[in-house]
C-alpha cells in the first residue's frame, strides 16, 4: 500500500516552479523498507485553452508562478485520498484523485498537484514490482521505440526570434534503430549550427533547445534545414523528413478571423495575415516543396470546420496533429474522430492531469486509426517518465525537443537505455500515414 505521499516545489527548465511528488509504497507489496517513486510535472508556454488547470499561487514570490498551494494540496487532501491504497491499481488511484478534486478542469487541487501524484504512484509501483517503468506501464508487448520528432529550430512563444511557426523538427525515418536515429539528428543539429554561423545568424537556442535565428519565415527555415541534412550526408525525404508545429492558436486573431504573422511582417515590412483557407494553401505549398510528414496545430483550437477541411485536403498524405485542438481530452478527441478533424493526437499528460486519462486518450485515438505522439512540454525537467510512456503506449513517435539541453537529452538518453534493455526484441520502424514511408 501507499505509505507516504510527499510533494515539494522544485524548478523546471525555464527556472519556474513546478511540483515534484514522492510516493513510498511498502509492506503489502514488498519488504519493510519500501520503494519510493517520484515524478516532476512539466509546464507549457503555448498552452491550449481547454487544458486542465495548472495551479499557480499568484503571490509575489517567484513572480506569481509559485506552486505552494498545489504542493500543499498533495501533502494534505490528495495524500489523505490515496494513503493506504494499492499502488498497483492505477485507475482506482486516479479516480480517487479526481474525486478529491471534483471539478472538470481540476481547478480545486490543480492538475499539476494531481498529475505529480498520479505519475509518482506508477513509478513507485514499477519499482515495487522490480520492473522497468515502460514494461510496467505497457506490458511485454512494449517493444516499439519511438521515432523522434526533434525540434531543431524554435520560434513562436518558445523563442525571441522572428520565426512565427513554433517548431521545426527532423524525423530520422530511415534509421535502423533509435540509437542511429539519435545520432543522425545530432549530426544534422550540429551541421545546422555551423551553417547558421557561416551566414552570421544567431545559433542561440530557444526553450526546447532548437536554434532561434531571425529568418523570414517557414520556407527559409525549412530550406536551411534541408541544406543541413544534405551537408550532414543524409538524403532528404529518405533518411530524414520534416515535421512542423505551427501552434496556430497563438497566431489567430478572433476579430480579424485570420492568422497574424508578426515576425514575417517585421521582416518584410508589410502586415502579413493569412485566413484558414490561405493557411491550408500555404501548407500544401510547403508539403510539395519539402518532405513535411507532419503538421501540428495548423489551425486554431476552436476551428473544427477548418480542421475538417484541412484534413480533407491534406489528410491522405500528411499527419495532421491536434495538440491545442484535442488537449489529450477524450471528449474532444471523440469529436475530432466523428468530424474527421485531424488524423493524429498529441499526448501531453499534464494537459489532462492523470496517467489513466492520458492512456485512455491513446487508446481511443488508436482504435479510431488516429496516430499518437507522446510529447514533452516547453517547460521540462530531468524526469524521464515520458520516454517510458512513449514505449508503453506503442505510439511510435515522440516529441522531446532538440538533442541539446539536459531536460531534453534526459528523455533521449533514457530511450537509449530502454533500447539496450529490449535488446533483440526492440523495434524501430516509421510507418507513415499510408503505411511504411521508407522507399
Ligand atoms: P508548450 O509547447 O509546451 O509550450 O505548450 C509544446 C507544443 O505546442 O507542442
Ligand atoms: Zn504543439
Automatic annotation (TrEMBL):
Its cofactor is Mg(2+). InterPro entries: Enolase (IPR000941), Enolase-like_C_sf (IPR036849), Enolase-like_N (IPR029017), Enolase_C (IPR020810), Enolase_CS (IPR020809), Enolase_N (IPR020811). Residues 2-137 form the Enolase N-terminal domain. Mg(2+) binds at residues 245, 296, 323. It is found in: Cytoplasm; Secreted; Cell surface. It comes from the Bacteria. CDD domains: enolase. Residues 142-436 form the Enolase C-terminal TIM barrel domain. The active site is at 208 (proton donor), 348 (proton acceptor). GO terms for molecular function: phosphopyruvate hydratase activity. Pfam families: Enolase_C (PF00113), Enolase_N (PF03952). SUPFAM superfamilies: Enolase C-terminal domain-like, Enolase N-terminal domain-like. Pathway: Carbohydrate degradation; glycolysis; pyruvate from D-glyceraldehyde 3-phosphate: step 4/5. Its EC number is 4.2.1.11. (2R)-2-phosphoglycerate binds at residues 166, 348, 377-378, 399. Its main location: cytoplasm. Binds a second Mg(2+) ion via substrate during catalysis. It catalyses: (2R)-2-phosphoglycerate = phosphoenolpyruvate + H2O. Catalyzes the reversible conversion of 2-phosphoglycerate (2-PG) into phosphoenolpyruvate (PEP). It is essential for the degradation of carbohydrates via glycolysis. Belongs to the enolase family. This is Enolase.
Amino acid at each position: 500500500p501507499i505509505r507516504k505521499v510527499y510533494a515539494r516545489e522544485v524548478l523546471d527548465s525555464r527556472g519556474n516552479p513546478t511540483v515534484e511528488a514522492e510516493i513510498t509504497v511498502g509492506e503489502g507489496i514488498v519488504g519493510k523498507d519500501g520503494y519510493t517513486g517520484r515524478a516532476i510535472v512539466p509546464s507549457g508556454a503555448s498552452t491550449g485553452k481547454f487544458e486542465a488547470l495548472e495551479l499557480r499561487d499568484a503571490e509575489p514570490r517567484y513572480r506569481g508562478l509559485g506552486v505552494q498551494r498545489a504542493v500543499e494540496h498533495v501533502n494534505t487532501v490528495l495524500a489523505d485520498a490515496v494513503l493506504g491504497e494499492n499502488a498497483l491499481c492505477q485507475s482506482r488511484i486516479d479516480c480517487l484523485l479526481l474525486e478529491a478534486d471534483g471539478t472538470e478542469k481540476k481547478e480545486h487541487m490543480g492538475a499539476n498537484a494531481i498529475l505529480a501524484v498520479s505519475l509518482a504512484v506508477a513509478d513507485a509501483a514499477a519499482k515495487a514490482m522490480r520492473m522497468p517503468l515502460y514494461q510496467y506501464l505497457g506490458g511485454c508487448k512494449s517493444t516499439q521505440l519511438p521515432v523522434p520528432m526533434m525540434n531543431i529550430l524554435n520560434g513562436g512563444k518558445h523563442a525571441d526570434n522572428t520565426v512565427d511557426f513554433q517548431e521545426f523538427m527532423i524525423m530520422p525515418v530511415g534509421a535502423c534503430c533509435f540509437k542511429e536515429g539519435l545520432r543522425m539528428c545530432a549530426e544534422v543539429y550540429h551541421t545546422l549550427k555551423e551553417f547558421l554561423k557561416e551566414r552570421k545568424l544567431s545559433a542561440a537556442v530557444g526553450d526546447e533547445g532548437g536554434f532561434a535565428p531571425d529568418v523570414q519565415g517557414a520556407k527559409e527555415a525549412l530550406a536551411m534545414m534541408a541544406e543541413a541534412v544534405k551537408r550532414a550526408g543524409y538524403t532528404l525525404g529518405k533518411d530524414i523528413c520534416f515535421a512542423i508545429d505551427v501552434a496556430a492558436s497563438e497566431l489567430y486573431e478572433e476579430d480579424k478571423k485570420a492568422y497574424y504573422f508578426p515576425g514575417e511582417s517585421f521582416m518584410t515590412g508589410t502586415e502579413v495575415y493569412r485566413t484558414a483557407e490561405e493557411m491550408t494553401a500555404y501548407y500544401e505549398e510547403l508539403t510539395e516543396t519539402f518532405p513535411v510528414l507532419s503538421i501540428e496545430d495548423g489551425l486554431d483550437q476552436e476551428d473544427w470546420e477548418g480542421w475538417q477541411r484541412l484534413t480533407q485536403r491534406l489528410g491522405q498524405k500528411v499527419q495532421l496533429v491536434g495538440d491545442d485542438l484535442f488537449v489529450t481530452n477524450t471528449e474532444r478527441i471523440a469529436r475530432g474522430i466523428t468530424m474527421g478533424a485531424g488524423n493524429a493526437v498529441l499526448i501531453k499528460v499534464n494537459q489532462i492531469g492523470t496517467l489513466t486519462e492520458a492512456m485512455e486518450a491513446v487508446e481511443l485515438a488508436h482504435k479510431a486509426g488516429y496516430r499518437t505522439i507522446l510529447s514533452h512540454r516547453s517547460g521540462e525537467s530531468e524526469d524521464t517518465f515520458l520516454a517510458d510512456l512513449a514505449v508503453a503506449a506503442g505510439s511510435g513517435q515522440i516529441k522531446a525537443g532538440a538533442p541539446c539541453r539536459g531536460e531534453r537529452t534526459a528523455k533521449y538518453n533514457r530511450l537509449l537505455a530502454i533500447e539496450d534493455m529490449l535488446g533483440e526484441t526492440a523495434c524501430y520502424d516509421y510507418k507513415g500515414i499510408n503505411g511504411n514511408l521508407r522507399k
